[in-house]
Amino acid sequence: MFEFLFKRQGDKNGNGRGAQADAPAQPADASAKAGGASDKANPKGGAKAVAATASAANARTGTALREQQAEQLKLLDGDESRAVDFILQCEFSELRLLAAELVHSRAGLERVHAAMRNLDRRVAKLMQSRLDAIRHHDAELARGQATLDAARALLADDRLTPNQVADLDHKWAVIAAPELNDSFAPVRAQLGARLEAQVRLQRAMIDRLAALRQLETAGLDSAGMAASLDKMLAEQTEALAAPEHPSLPRALVAEFAAEHARLTAALTTLEQSQAALAAREAALTEWQAQPVAELQAETLRQAWRKLPALPEGAAGQALQARFDALLATLPQPVRKEAPARQQAATGAESAGEGAARAQKAVKGADQAFLDKLDALEAALQQGSLAHAAELDKALKESKGKGMRLTSAQADRLAHLRAELKRLSDWARWGGNVSREELIKTVEGLPTQNLAMAELAKKVGSMRERWKALDSLSGAAPKSLWERFDHACTVAYAPAAAHFRHLADERHANAAKGEAIVQEAQAEIAKLESGEADWKHVAGTVQRLRLAWSHLGAIDRKDKKRLDQLFGAALTTLQGPLEEQRKMEVEGREELIDEVLAIDPHDRHAVDRLRDIQARWQEHARALPLERKAEQALWQRFRAACDALFAQRKESAHALDAERRAHEAAKEAISARLEAAAPDATAATASKLLREAAAEWHAIGPVPRAHEARVDKRYHEAVAKVQHHADLSRRAAGLALASALRDKLRAVQELEDSLAQPGQQVSSGDWRARWAALLAAGPEYDPVLDARFEAALSALDTDRDAYARLLEANRPTLLAELLRQEVAAGIDSGAEFARDRLKLQVEALQSTLKAGNKPSGRHTALHALCALPALVDERTAMRIEQLLMRTAREGK
How far apart are CA 237 and CA 342, in angstroms? Predict the structure, then answer.
């Protein structure tokens, strides 16, 4: 199907090379004879033979080429540039893939990816994955460098806050850039040191402020308080000069300054109060020492008032009470009543005298009249005749109210009015001249080719100027007015025709507006009948609105009515349409929320996104929104889709990096277990395996391709540790069993010696031998030591009785030994077969009884070791066999 993709120029058979070019050379006569013979015998068979020969030649050539390129691949020797050149000229995909493993630089990856993108998918995918990994690493480095620069900026910032450092730590925690750790660590340490310094400075500030507040109630004298205030002020000055002083809260600094100033002022008051108390105390003491007859109360009061004021408090009240008591002992002078105050009579001027002094006669004009007179004079000087005429009219009205002018004022007013008349005559003459000029200007307007609006404006301004001349220069002659009016009519004629045309257009536009309103009302009727197609309604509304906006000018009276009708119709159409669009917007918002809610790690995320995109297109075809809203929603939807794909891509890279990190961590655990396995003991193995298992389960997944290998290595390492721990445990058990056997054999020999009456037993020798034996463990040493001491104590008490006890315990020992052999599954010998069968039956019956559980192996062995009894060699061997079996089983 795709053979044409692999054809080359000159290839007629689709094999990449011409058959004639690849066929081996043959002699001309031989080939001709062979071809002639084959053609005569079987023309089709001859053609097939030629094709087969060509195919075989092509195959041999391709094999030779592959071998040649395979040899070139071996000679690359890890050279990346040569590998890139080899990939670009190699014709075999498997060889290209092997060579692609040597390409790691960005330039080489981009070059190979661009060449293999449409040729070799596997190589292109490998190049793309490595390029993505490089870009991801570069992005992490850029983020890390930006964060490092931000950290250095914070380090140089005078106003460092803990929130800034916390944000910095949060940003650095999610950055995978180990190359920058050595640069970031010292900067972070310096930031931490600054924060610690800030904490110490603030804590000292709080303590210092608290101590300052307690000074007032500490009961110190003025000298002590002054010293404390000076010390705290020095500490505060030192704190404000510290490098981290900007971190001190301004409120605390201001509060300290205010409190220190208040206490300083209080210190001054305290010193003054103490000085006042001392001065009054000295004066009072001096007065009390003088005779009462020499003292005068008024003199004492004056002297007491001249002294510094008494401070508030108990001390001041006490001194005042003593002074009052002193005054009470002195004779009081008799006071004379003060003469009554004489009231000064004030004479008011009589109303008659005031009325006599007032003058009712008016002496000249009032100030308002004089101001208007000055304004009239100024207007005449400036040539403002209109303003001067208005002021003259106002003066006439003011004078008509009974105002009497002085002769000077009357002369001045007459002079000003004469001047006004003279100027008015000149203005009338000048106005006629100006009117002639206006007529000439208006008559020249048709020749200026002005725009209609400007022409109408010019004619209107000329008429306004004519009216202004009438107000300034008086009425114009009738002949001039007729000339001016005819000139204005002629000049305005084109504008009048233009405006009539515009009026006709306004009427036509009004008719178009009526048609648009009728169409809108017809659409409303369809909408109310329930036959609305929302897409058609939206298109109609947009078309009507566009047509209405393209309407030209309309007469004001018609425009207001049509605007109201069209607005009401458009509102009626847009109401349901807007509701439907609102529902459509909500539907689009839900689609966007669905995109945002898609888990980028879900393998069905792309399928779900495609389904949502198809639903979006259905919504867009069903009811188009307004362009602005449609564009905004589409931008959000596309941004959400792009964000999902970006998250999937970023998540894939992050997951790959995370899984590789997990693989390295698990490999490290396995390596640690393998290294610790040879030295593992029963005591350390359980802790080591428990910690390793906790770390192993806390680590996340590894790449799936390596999961089986990583798990296998871990389980093998765990098995190796457990194996060495079992060996160590078994060796320890055997060592304890050997020590127990030696001690048990020693105490058995001692008991056997005691049972023989003629044999001498030395207590000292046995104790030395016993002390030389190894310990059998905390479980058996107390039992055996007690049995040994009991045997030695029998030497001093009653040896024969102990020997009889040993002989009496022999059957009990044999029965207990047989029972434990049955429980341990050890053969006791043919002579004990009947007894073993009996014990087995009893054991079976006891296990069938409810609540009857067999005793532990150690408890029974303790009882066996603690029982003093005579044993023969056969019994001793049976006991040792039981001990070794127990030690091997680890029980």
Answer: 68
Tokens of 726: 């079992």
Neighbours of 714 (CB within 10 A): 19
Count of CB atoms situated within 10 Å of the CB of 431: 22
Closest among 835, 737, 828 to 777, alpha carbons compared: 737
Determine contact, residues 298/265, Cβ cutoff 8 Å: no
Measured distance CA(254)–CA(259) in Å, rounded: 8
d(C-alpha 111, C-alpha 365), whole Å: 108
Give me the phi and psi of 369, to 5 degrees please: -65, -45
d(CA 676, CA 632): 63
User: How do residues 364-397 score in pLDDT, each as one tens digit?
Assistant: 567 777 887 788 788 777 666 667 777 878 877 7
If we measure between CA atoms, which residue out of 771, 775, 784 comes closest to residue 737? 775
Confidence at residue 473, expressed as pLDDT on a 0 to 100 scale? 65
- What is residue 186's predicted lDDT score, i.e. its pLDDT? 92
d(CA 249, CA 158): 14
- HSE (CB half, 13 Å, CA atoms) of 289? 6
* Spans in the chain with pLDDT lower than 50: 1-50, 334-363, 850-855, 891
Buried b (16+ CB within 10 A) or exposed e, 115-142: bbeeebeebbebbeebebeeebeeebee
Count of Cβ atoms closer than 10 Å to residue 885 Cβ = 17
Which one, of 91, 167, 176, lies nearest residue 140 by Cα?
176
pLDDT at residue 360, as a whole number: 36
Buried b (16+ CB within 10 A) or exposed e, 159-185: ebeeebbeebeeebeebebeebeeebe
Could you give the CA distance from residue 143 to residue 170 in angstroms, rounded to a whole number? 13
CA 489 to chain centre: 78
